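Hi U.,

Before I forget, here's the chain from the pilot set. I'm dumping it here mostly so it's searchable later in email.
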Amino acid sequence: MLMQNPIRHHGLMHSYEFGLNVVRILRLDTMMDRELFTCGKNLVIDNILRQFNLNQDSQHKLYAAICDETVIGFYAINSSVAKIYFKDKNNQNKINFYTQPSINIEAIAVHKDWQNAKKGRKIGTLLFLHCCEVTTEISQLLGVSLLSLTAVNRKVADYYHEKWGFQYANPDHLAKSNSEIEDIGIPMQLDIGTVWEIVKKFS
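Structure:
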């Protein structure tokens, strides 16, 4: 089973037990020990943490996975406007788009020592599920229609598409070369109804 002994807190999945380890997911604050946090070379994540360190009132909302008072993972979200692309009815070579309000996942990161899913340490999955529940709560206040993210490569895009049902905002992005994708990423979206279904399934 994915979650062992989940403890609920104000409606959010809040604490999980992995053997002798208890992992809690909380709003990140400057008092938490994240000096040794590393998930590999990722400039986006480094930049988000740097902005947060300088200004807790920044546009990002950060939630951290904590074990023994140390940050072992986190995710960052912000309110955004997602583009929905479609082909022009009169000109199939022309791509148009419209926008919808969304919660955008800026990053999900797990400490390198906790990235081994074979040991039952599915911290990234727990962070994503927590993110989904936060999104449903926000959607009731702000009328959010989508949960969005930008996959950094095809492998990540395939994971979110196959595992969670994310759709490609613009399928034409998949035809781009790997180098182009590394530069711009692959925008993906999940409708809020599916987000609610995920939350109900794993609650």
